[in-house]
User: What shape does this take?
Amino acid sequence: MSIEFSIREYSASDEKEWLDLHAAIMVDSYAWWIVIHQKPEYKSEVVDLVAEVDGNLVGLITVEINSEVIDIVEGEYGFVWEFGVHREYRGLGIGKGLIKRAHEILNNKYVINKSIWYSQDEKAQKYYEKLGMKEIERHWQFSVLPDEKHKEILKEDGFDCWEMRGSCSVKDFEKIKKKYNLIEDDDALKPRLCIGYELEYD
Assistant: This one.
């Protein structure tokens, strides 16, 4: 099956439809653990694209130039904050089209041929590996119920804490599990292995 789609730059007038699409993508993915209510802004310049079918948004990608969120990558790169295609339009080449167009802009405008991807969603990880992305790092992400000692320390500052979000290296995960009360019975918050990838696009 083939379908005609177009890829263009995101416009501020797209925000409501972009958020609707983002929420629909989140339903099938564990890449995010909180719903966003407005389109994020970033410190650096971004390559911000959407895919359309019959005038409706069906895919998105947002890539920040040399994001400060990581420090393990040498040289210039684009950090992919948002990426996805609506479930009804997957497997039609739209995701690959978004990636290709984003890399064309990275190369032509910024002379960058490398993008960095992170996800804690297993389906996304398999997709990235199928595209030939190279793994560069992995860590655990999780939520913790603070014990009474931590609650008291935080309460001294007026902070009534009922859960905390954090991460750790793979080698430290078992130690963290033994020492802290990780939330494991909540589908959205339970521990997930997050894997980082690098994609070079010539």
